Amino acid sequence: MDPARKRKVRLVSALSAALLLATALVYTSFSAASPARSPSQLLAGAQPGRSYQLTGTVVAGSVRRRGDVLDFRVRDRAGTASVPVHYSGTVPDPFREGREVIVTVRRQGSGFIGERDSLVTKCPSKFSVKPGKGY
Amino acid sequence: MAIVGRACLLLALAVIAYGIGASLYGARARRPEWVASGRRAVFALAGLLTVAMGVLEIAFLRSDFHFDLVASHSSTTTPTFYKAAAMWSSQEGSLLLWVWLLSLWSSLVLWVTRGRLREVVPYATSVLLGLAGFFVGLLVFATTSPFQTSAQAPADGAGLNPLLRHPSMMIHPPMLYSGYTLFTIPLAFALGALIVRRVDSEWIRATRRFALAAWLLLGIGILLGARWSYAELGWGGYWGWDPVENASLMPWLTGTAFLHSAMIQEKRGMLRTWNVSLVLASGTLAILGTFLVRSGVLDSIHAFGASTLGVPFVILIALLIAASVGLVVSRRRALASSAQIDSLCSREAIFLLNNLVLVGLCFVVFWGTFFPLISEALTGSRASVGPPWFDRYTVPLALVLVLLSGIGPLVAWRRATVSNALRNLRAPLILAGVAVAVLVVAGVSGSATALAMFGFAAFVVAAMAQEFVRGTRARRALAAEPPMRALVSLVRRNRRRYGGYLVHVGMAVLFVGVAGSSAFQHARDVRLNVGQTATVGRYQVRYVGATAQVARDPAHTGAVLDLGAQLQVSRDGHPVATLSPSRGYYPSQDPAQGSVGSLIGGDPVSHVGMRAGLGRDIWSAITPDISSLAPLIDRANRVVPFVRPDLGLIALGAIAGRYLRQPPPATFRLIDSPLVTWIWFGGIIVFLGGLVALWPAPALARRPVLAPARARLARQPSRA
User: Fold this and answer.
1) How far is the C-alpha of B357 from the C-alpha of B426, rounded, in Å?
2) For a 10 Å CB count at each end of chain A, is N or C smaller?
């Protein structure tokens, strides 16, 4: 094989490998991703067994700790619609009532079960973006 | 004083405009005195911004609450050490820190390159000043000024967010931002080189040290962030594929690729387009990283709309990408190189493969990080991928990368014979095999990936050791020196090479820590009463008793109340450690919580109780259930007036006493985490190796680098 042809073959095989990998990446990201939903969207229709990424604000007065389990309600950022979440696992330090959280949940009956260790709050270095909250 | 700061920012804008004008005019009209004046504008900018930083920093240290920024981010109860760091916990303060560091590093590079790269420098100066102008412009026009003052100063400030009160927060942001800003320096010189079509290796040589420093400081910044997360967040992890973490990792990955492929261009004159693209990508990703952290675009689309920084940043990044692509395409002839890779069994080929893996990794991280935006654009619904998705791609790529970091240095440039390469690889491969066999016999099992990583890391360490031994031997034969002296002079004469090898060793050690702690970690969240025991991994942890301290502040972070536990850790009945995790409670600014309640109503923060060891860390955090104390706090609120915080502390003392006498159950997070120490240890080795590579070479070794430049100048008398 002459060098130019050899180079071309290499280039084509490298490019097709890259393309294959990229396709796998794109495909898996769409199939593995859990869609982000607000509480009102979840109330409007959540399929059982499917996992969603619930984002919203922890409702004031709703946090109950029973043993290793944390029960709380999450409401829309702007609104009052809220869903109950039954969660166990790590609770980040900044978690408290009135704070924005993200938690991966699955529907069970009328409530939602939080996936273990999936509860996150916003990175503390960004709290200062919202003025007048008195942190 | 605030007026001085404001004046400095406005003057800075004027100096920037002048500097860009002078540099561009000097370049067009071939008037070197104007170019020199443009360079001096950068020095003046650094001076002005230093004064501005000084004004703000002094205001923080003096707790001058006339400054709105000080009032909202510091307080008299914030410890002095953290008052200094509070400056960059704010949006405006961190932008000022960014542009200040940019002006310092720009001054340094322009001073180092004075008299060199005459054609490129004016354009690079303009790019650097343009970037500085963007950030100063943001501070002046887009955000509230960091020097905003109120006539009526509040009695006390809100205080630094307690979560940020960790020693690494003092150096983590400056390190990270130094890394980000240093990456814009090769970017500016690459753009300059493209504009004047001087795309040989000279701009790479002039800025290589800056790229290396950027890579090193960004890496250390990332690691310090991981350390903070591990030691402060009450979560026990060091990496979570969070957008902010990913943002800092992406330029680091492309920067790593560039540091390797730049060597190919210096040695063989190849890969010019690739190198320029990597540098442009690293610089742009560094700015993208700043944007991600500062705008909150990925946390919430609403925050993006609310933040005034989003649109200007998007315009800047779009401009950078357009300029980069346009310049690379229009200069493709000048970038073409005649040399080709001779063989797939050569160091060039290995470096190229390592580059592809690194860029692939960067793409994976990019895709995962921006997936919420991508999916929203494509499907209309916002979705995100979690750590398992990232791990699926990054784990195999990291394995390949570690393996390549051992193979690369053992394969010769240009064309290595397979038999020769195998001869070099033999001893390290055997050692790696022995290491894996020993681990398997010792009972390490359950994770093939971790075992593979251990094997690859052993291979890398053995391969690098072999290189050091061979080099020292050759040096001894040549100069008849004793072994230690030979080793030292070997490293001194080839700092870049052996510094690089040390970095490889450090990364291998670091990845051993990552693999071990991810694969063999045991974590539990348990609720315990005093006297109860929980088992985590190989250890039994007993809740021995409660601890409570008022206004003692054992962690020196300004906590008013500190509730914790004594934990007795034992293994097979033998005590191994006593841990004292606690939770610090901080004052809030919320009067609705009452006079006593507001003393401890801020964000509570875990103070981790940990015993770190070379083999494993035993890690614990506590969340006391203080709901039983609420009635007591309510009663104290009614009795103690707001103006008597001293009485409030006495009431808290009584409440803490009650907590000690009747300790309520507490939730503990307990982790038995092997090899985490190796991550920090590996990081230190990487840092030392980077320093060796960065350290200025002795004058003798520097001469050959200048020789080609001189020869070219001699050939082109009209240009010189």
Assistant:
1) 24
2) N
Nearest to B303 among A25, A125, A129 (CB): A129
Question: How long is chain A?
Answer: 135
| Helix (H) / strand (E) containing B673 | strand B666-674
Question: Hey, are the CB atoms on A124 and B164 less than 8 Å from each other?
Answer: yes
The Cα B196–Cα B191 span in angstroms is 9
Establish if A47 touches chain B: CB-CB under 8 angstroms: no
CA atoms within 13 A of residue B391's CA, in its CB half-sphere: 11
B307, B384, B590 member nearest A34 (Cβ): B384
Asked if B204 and B192 count as a contact pair (C-beta separation under 8 A), the reply is: no
Angle formed by the axes of helices B448-479 and B418-441, nearest 10°: 130
Cα–Cα distance for residue pair B447/B697, rounded to 1 Å: 44
Please enumerate, as own/partner, the contacts of A15-18 that have beta carbons within 8 Å and a separation of 24 or more: A18/B356, A18/B360
The SS3 of residue B115 is coil
Residue B359's closest chain A neighbor by CA? A18
Cα B585 to Cα B582: distance, rounded to the nearest angstrom: 10
Contact A36, B300 (CB under 8 A): no
B609-611 sheet: strands from edge to edge: B522-528, B666-674, B616-624, B609-611
Domain spanning A36-123, CATH class: mainly beta
- Find, among B531, B622, B535, B526, the residue nearest to B581 by Cα: B622
Its ipTM equals 0.78
pLDDT in tens, A44-94: 887 887 888 888 888 988 888 776 788 999 998 778 889 999 998 878 777
- Rounded CA-CA distance B63/B237 in Å is 34
Residues B298 and B306 sit within 8 Å (Cβ to Cβ): no
Q: How far apart are CA B392 and CA B449, in angstroms?
A: 11
- The structural domains of chain A, with segments of one domain joined by +, span 1-33, 36-123
From start to end of B499-624, where are the E strands?
A: 522-528, 533-536, 539-550, 561-571, 574-579, 582-585, 605-607, 609-611, 616-624
Is A126 touching B (CB cutoff 8 A)? Answer: yes
Q: What is the DSSP letter of A37?
A: E
- Residue whose C-alpha is closest to residue B491's, from B522, B518, B510, B468: B468
Q: Alpha-carbon distance B289 to B142, whole Å?
A: 19
Q: What is the DSSP string of B476-493?
A: HHHH---HHHHHHHHHHH
| Alpha helix (H) residue ranges in B29-90 | 32-61, 68-73, 80-86
pLDDT tens, residue by residue, B263-307: 888 888 888 899 999 999 999 999 998 888 777 666 543 344 446
User: What letter represents residue B107's amino acid?
Assistant: S
| B609 within 8 A of B582, measured Cβ to Cβ | yes
User: Could you report the per-residue pLDDT of B685-717, keeping only the tens digit for each?
Assistant: 999 999 999 987 665 444 444 555 555 555 554
Note the pTM of the prediction, 2 decimals: 0.89
Report the half-sphere exposure of B605 (CA within 13 A, side-chain side).
Answer: 25
Q: How confident is the model at residue A21 (pLDDT cuts 50, 70, 90)?
A: confident
Containing B702, the helix (H) or strand (E) segment is helix B699-715
Residue type, B517: S
Element (DSSP H or E) covering residue A74: strand A69-75
> In whole angstroms, what is the distance from residue B57 CA to residue B4 CA?
13
Rounded to 10 degrees, the C-alpha dihedral B185/B188/B190/B196 comes to: -140
| AA letter at B479 | A
Instruction: Tell me the one-letter amino acid at B60.
Output: F
Contact of B542 with chain A, judged by CB distance below 8 Å, is answered with: no
Q: What is the DSSP letter of B664?
A: P
Of A18, A29, A91, nearest to B368 by CB-CB distance is A29
Half-sphere exposure at residue B460, Cβ-oriented, CA atoms within 13 angstroms? 28
Half-sphere exposure of B8 (CA within 13 A, CB side): 24
